[in-house]
Amino acid sequence: MIPSLFITHGTPMLAVEDTTYSRYLEELGRTFPRPQAIILFSAHWESDVQMISEIDEYSMMYDFGGFPNELYQVIYPAKGSKEVSLQVQELLNAAGIANRTERERGLDHGSWTILKRMYPDADIPLIAMSVNPSLTPAEQYAIGKALAPLREQDVLIIGSGVTVHNFGLLRAKDKSAVKSLVLGFEKWLENHMKQWDLDSLFRYEELAPNAKIAVPQQAKEHFIPVFYTMGAANQNEFTKTLFQGLVMDVIMNSVYQYGE
């Protein structure tokens, strides 16, 4: 049974910059068990009802501005799988989770930045999925849990986001305090994920240190992919930290594995 992954997508520059993190994702793609298909929950696709792509070939979305021209030339020709999309729909229906299909939306940068690094040949079928910040963490977890049987078919379930997502911290004058805040929140999250302490994780807003700064209300969509991908590993409660790196003392480039 293939594990699920939470992967930080950081800035779109991840797709073109040569960094320790971009090289790590390339190595991860080479060494991680090769999936038969990928289901990816992206922080950059929000919807009130669970959306599921049913697309033969994705177009590109350059859903950002102010970046170098080379970034707008990146092409990731991902293809979908109607068979896997239908399986996702059936599993969500069986769990009583409302869902709809999407047949036109292109691939946002929360998806193609990390996939271009991990699987540059774009030769693994992809199902893009939305996230819903209005749901409770338990409801987000339940969506991932409903899809857990697909891991037995070597379908890789990825949550793409950022654990600490508050650009206001870039303007803070006390950089050491910001770094301490970010690392403190990340350590709390990592510890409780490794304990599979869902009671505390689902109440992270009140229990995690500086949670409302680390995960402000307007940016929850970047944090919640953690719950979707943890839910997918509900049968074997195991968390492994694969990568952590601090960027500008504000953004954690984190990769977590759930399940074995």
Word description of this protein:
The protein is of the alpha/beta class and 260 residues long. Helices cover 34% and strands 20% of the residues. Strands 5-2-6-1-8-7 form a six-stranded mixed sheet, with helices on both faces. It has a two-stranded parallel sheet with strand order 3-4. Strand 3, helix 2 and strand 4 form a beta-alpha-beta unit. Helix 4 packs across helix 10.
**Regions with little confidence, pLDDT below 50 for 5+ residues:** none
Form type: globular
Distance between the termini: 7 Å
Strand content: 15-25%
Main pleated sheet: 6 strands, mixed
Give the SSE order as H and E letters: EHEEHEHEHEHHHHHHEE
| Rounded average pLDDT | 95
Set out the fold topology.
Blueprint: E1 4-8, H1 20-31, E2 37-46, E3 50-53, H2 82-94, E4 99-102, H3 109-118, E5 126-131, H4 137-146, E6 155-161, H5 175-194, H6 198-201, H7 204-207, H8 211-214, H9 220-223, H10 225-231, E7 239-247, E8 251-258
Parallel strand pairs: 1-6, 2-5, 2-6, 3-4
Antiparallel strand pairs: 1-8, 7-8
Helix pairs in contact: 4-10
